[in-house]
Specification:
By secondary structure, this protein is mainly beta. It has 1 helix and 37 strands. The strands form 8 sheets. A 7-stranded mixed β-sheet has the order 1-2-10-9-4-5-6, with no helix packed on it. Strands 29, 31, 32, 35, 36 and 37 form a 6-stranded mixed β-sheet that branches. The protein is rod-shaped, with a radius of gyration of 50 Å.
């Protein structure tokens, strides 16, 4: 803080004497001059000091009387100041042959005013000045700065986290500072944005105390979640602003929900699917919707992002079967700010080994005819590493020109012409990257031929 004993000194001419202006800070000492010039004007009978219209000190060297009056002796009448004893007075004279200066210590705000000393000389023929004017301006640093919610002025929220408030709402904050003189200026900052408040100044006419109140209305948006609201006050006594702050908790809806891209699994092998809900505050709730009958477990982890919102990750664990292939799974996220949940869904890709069946029923054919045997295959993927046909447990050599094999969802084996040796039992086998399987049933062929 600056050291204010005498900051400003103005000297202007006056008919009755000189006028000086002093600036003094509360708690300091000031010495107000009153020239008496005994060498030229002679001895004086008495001297009185006034502040405005109130008498503050009376001194008479003739009557051997010296007394402070008015507000300078208020402490002497205050029982709580009893320990001061004879030092209770805040005013006393320092008298020399040239001056009868009034010293006031410690300075209080109410000491401000126009002071004059009136001198009564014993010999009035010397035409010496008998009145001297001095102006005193008192200043003080603000003693405090506090912040309140405007609708609850009794609770100081300085340094606290306030809220939560919903995004899109408006909140009025008030900032109060007292004890400063002159009235400090008030400034607001919310995050990186400067705000303009509406300021009022109240002065206590009894003791000169000044209270400054500034009100600002803050429109809260998503980006304000976790932001700090600052109120700063400063006047000429302070080198640095006096500041208080609160952190504003803003509830916002979840910004996005998405299921991670990896939704490919394998039958009878445990798999994990992740769903992320980003940008909500407070922490949202994630719920899953799975194909009917699927049992699953979930676990969650969360983190706070740079904007003070949350990212919540829910990991769902289950063991799929082929029945879940090409079925949809969805996750929903909602928090207390939202009326409806955000949702994302994904298509499951469950790989499984082939399921193989023979389509045809047993047949009786005549030698020389043609027959086609169909094998139905259900698999994922449908890219087969091998498909084999068996006749009486022996692998059929499809390179034989009598056999024609076609592979698709229906694998077929054409035999042309049929010979008596083709009679017997047939089945097929298919293999993909997951595994292999033979047909669950077989086909019996009976061949008729002439003797």
């Amino acid at each position: 803080m600056r050291n204010f004993h005498v900051l400003i000194l103005l000297i202007a001419g006056s008919i009755k004497g000189d006028s000086e202006v002093f600036v003094a800070r509360t708690g300091d000492e000031v010495q107000l001059p009153c020239p008496v010039n005994s060498a030229e004007c002679g001895e004086f009978h008495s001297l009185k000091w006034y502040r405005d219209s109130s008498r503050m000190y009376v001194y008479s060297p003739v009557a051997e009387f010296s007394n402070a009056e008015g507000s300078l002796v208020d402490r002497c009448l205050d029982i709580s100041q009893r320990s001061l004893g004879p030092k209770c007075s805040r005013g006393y004279l320092e008298v020399t042959d040239a001056n009868a200066d009034l010293k006031i210590s410690p300075i209080e705000l109410m000491d401000e005013g126009e002071y004059r000393c009136e001198i009564t000389y014993i010999d009035v023929s010397n035409n010496c000045p008998v009145v001297h004017f001095t102006k005193l301006r008192t200043v003080a640093a603000p003693e405090y700065v506090s912040m309140f919610i405007n609708n609850n002025p009794d609770e100081d929220i300085s340094g606290q986290v306030v809220g939560p408030y919903s995004s899109g709402s408006s909140v009025a904050f008030s900032c109060e500072s007292g004890g400063g003189k002159p009235a400090p200026s008030v400034s607001w900052r919310f995050g990186e944005e400067d705000l303009e408040g509406e300021t009022t100044v109240d002065e206590n006419i009894l003791n000169g105390d000044i209270t400054v109140t500034s009100v600002v209305v803050v429109d809260l948006e998503r980006e304000h979640s976790g932001a700090y609201l600052y109120c700063s006050v400063i006047n000429e006594v302070l080198d640095e602003p006096l500041e208080t702050q609160v952190q504003v908790d803003v509830n916002v809806a979840v910004k996005s929900v998405f299921i991670e891209e990896e939704t490919t699994g394998q039958e009878d092998t445990e798999m994990v699917i992740s769903c992320s809900a980003v940008g909500g505050r407070p922490l949202p709730v994630i719920s899953w919707h799975m194909p009917e009958g699927v049992e699953f477990e979930t676990e969650e982890e969360s983190e706070i992002l740079e904007d003070e919102t949350f990212k919540l990750i829910s990991k769902l664990t289950f063991t799929p079967t082929k029945e879940e292939n090409e079925k949809y799974v969805s996750c929903q996220a909602i928090n207390e700010v939202m009326d409806e949940a955000l949702e994302d869904e994904a298509l499951l890709d469950i790989m499984y080994a082939p399921r193989v069946t023979i389509e045809d029923e047993n047949k009786t054919m005549t030698a020389g005819d043609e027959i086609i045997i169909n094998c139905l295959i259900d698999a994922n993927p449908m890219n087969f590493s091998q498909v084999q046909w068996f006749h009486n447990e022996n692998v059929i050599d499809v390179e034989d020109e009598r056999f024609v094999e076609e592979n698709s969802e229906i694998v077929s084996l054409a035999i042309n012409p049929i010979v008596p040796g083709d009679a017997g039992n047939y089945y097929c086998l298919a293999e993909n990257e997951v595994g292999q399987a033979a047909s669950t049933n077989s086909f019996d062929l009976e061949v008729l031929y002439p003797p």
